[in-house]
Amino acid sequence: MRKIQCGILILMLTGTLGCSREYQSERSLHKAIRLSKDILATPDAVPPSQFNKAIEAYTFVFERYPDTLIGRKARMLMGSLYVAKKEYAKSREVFKKTLELYPDDKAIAVEARFSIGKSYELEGLWPSALAEYTEIIRKYPDTPAAFDLPIYIARYYEKQKDIPARNAAYLKAIKHYIAQAEKYPNTDMGFLSESLIVTCYMNQEDWGAALEALEKLLADYPMAKTVVATLRTAADISVRQLKDPQRAVDIFNRFMEKNPKHPLNESIKKGLEAFKNVPTNKN
After folding, report:
1. Is 140 within 8 Å of 109 (Cβ atoms)?
2. pTM of the entire structure?
3. CA angle at 160 for the pair 170 and 198, rounded to the nearest 5°
4. I want to staple 201 with a disulfide (CB 3.0 to 4.6 A). Which of 138, 180, 210, 253 is the partner?
5. What's the rounded Cα separation, in Å, for the pair 267 and 94?
6. How far apart are CA 93 and CA 3, in angstroms?
């Protein structure tokens, strides 16, 4: 009986110590975050002593709790402090060390690689940034960052007013999303891929291609929660951009033909009535 009681006591103490350690690690991280607040808001106005205290606070956390999520967060947050102070090379040292220490943590790996790329971008070293972003897309294609980055890259060129590079980036992005849509049919990732194809065409104001992509999205995912919004976007492009409401009418009718028992069909029929009074003004 005493052995059982001792065993229970040991288990209770172990659990308590585990909770206490987690609590202490969180407190230590919050302390470091508080010290970092002013640095991130106004990095040039913060004295070196405060910056050094924040770095020391983060260092304490990841050295004291190296194999915990809190420790990993501390490393990433410390790297962001160096970015805020425009000490980009030092920030990359921190992010690269994080990659080395946690190679099997996909979320941390993606965050670290993106942070490395962003530091290069902020430093004006776009080719190096692009290499990091491209590696994320290649190595971690099923992550949110990999879905966002192709359009992010195209928008970078757009901001630089480099239209040929922008167009090439969008073309590459569309090919990537098509491949992802084909790889993951009838899934959330497939749906997202097809949605981003629409975004690529709309960002380029290629309204005809955008409309075709929207109709494919409706055909492949007729029960998606966004069907109403997709139909409205198709109508808006047809009327406002292409000045051809018949395009929307045709899309609506084809949708109902392919999905005769769809719960939205009655609402779609009512919507079609509105197109009767819309003038056609094709160029």
Report:
1. yes
2. 0.86
3. 25
4. 210
5. 56
6. 51
Tell me which of 3.40.50.2300, 3.10.20.600, 1.25.40.10, 3.30.2350.10 is the CATH number of domain 23-125.
Answer: 1.25.40.10
- What does the alpha-carbon distance between residue 236 and residue 242 come to, in Å, rounded to a whole number? 9
The single-letter code of the amino acid at 189 is M
Q: At what angle do helices 126-139 and 144-159 cross, to 10 degrees?
A: 150
Residue-level length of the chain: 283
From first to last of its 283 residues, the chain has per-residue pLDDT tens of 555 554 544 444 444 445 577 878 899 999 999 999 989 999 999 999 999 999 999 999 999 998 899 999 999 999 999 999 999 999 999 999 999 999 899 999 999 999 999 999 999 999 999 999 999 999 999 999 999 999 999 999 999 999 999 999 999 999 999 999 999 999 999 999 999 999 999 999 999 999 999 999 999 999 999 999 999 999 999 999 999 999 999 999 999 999 999 999 999 998 888 777 666 665 5
Structure tokens at 202: 């709309």
Q: Which of 58, 99, 102 is nearest to 82 (CA)?
A: 58
CA distance 230 to 14: 54
The type of residue at 180 is Q
Q: How far is Cα of residue 233 from the mean position of the Cα atoms in its chain?
A: 23
Residue whose structure tokens are 């808006």: 236
Q: Rounded to whole angstroms, how far apart are CA atoms 194 and 210?
A: 11
Nearest to 193 by CA among 173, 207, 208, 209: 173
Helices (H), the chain: 2-41, 48-64, 69-84, 88-101, 106-122, 126-139, 144-159, 163-183, 188-203, 207-220, 227-236, 245-258, 265-274
